[in-house]
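Database export, one record per block. Field names are fixed; values are copied verbatim from the stored entry.
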Amino acid sequence: MFSRKGFTILELLIVIAVIAILVGIALPRFKGMQDEGNIAKAKGELRMLQTAVESFLIHTGAFPAALANLTTAVPQIAPTVLPTDPFGGAAYGYATAGSYFVIWSIGPGAVAGAATITAAGVAADTQQCIYVTNGSPVDTTP
């Protein structure tokens, strides 16, 4: 009696093709989940930095010149190491104008300098970045 041992080349090619199709379907979903995770991480870190900047203002009477000043001037109100933007690996953006500030992440679009703040206290989100501010946020996208 004849018995088969192993797989034929055709059977192996079919299995490889099915696996390739499944991987092709799954990869874009994993990328979307990674972006969602980075957005949540950035929002949490921005809220923490916002609290640190506001505490710095309360303790010193002025905004820090840069986020790095938070770790040295009043170390009890800020982390000893500042977090980095999960979308670019660099530091979060920070700007002040008058009695207002804005801290931003470049976001999934990875556009640097995407948020600004004016002397009137309006944060402008021109590139759909993720930001926090004590000013009045206004959507400036068309």
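Remark 1: The chain is about 40% helix and 20% strand.
Remark 2: The two ends are 76 Å apart (CA to CA).
End of record.
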